[in-house]
C-alpha cells in the first residue's frame, strides 16, 4: 500500500500522467472509410444466420444501406470483401454521396425494390 510521506514531498509516481482529454483516434467505417462518430455499429459482414462471426465497425446509415440493398445470401457470397459490395452501382453511388458528410450524419435509406 502506498503511503504519503510528508518529509519526502508527498506522492511520487514514476509513470507520467495520462492525458484524459486525449481521445483515441476514430475507427474508420468498413464500407465508406470515413471515421466513425459517436455511434459505432458493429456489423456482421457475413450474417450470423449464415455462419458469420466477424464484426466490422460501420456507421448506422452505411449498415442500413447494405441491409436495404442486399439479401443475406448476397452478403454471404461477398464475405469480408468490401470491394465486391462497392462494385454494385447503388452502393458506389451511396458511398460517393456520403463521403463529404459529417461522421454522425444520418438520414432515411431508400429501400430496394425487389
From TrEMBL:
Region described as Disordered: spans on this chain: 1-26
What's the superkingdom here?
A: Bacteria
Q: Where is the composition biased (Acidic residues)?
A: 12-23
Q: What is this protein called?
A: HNH endonuclease
Q: What is the source species?
A: Novosphingobium capsulatum
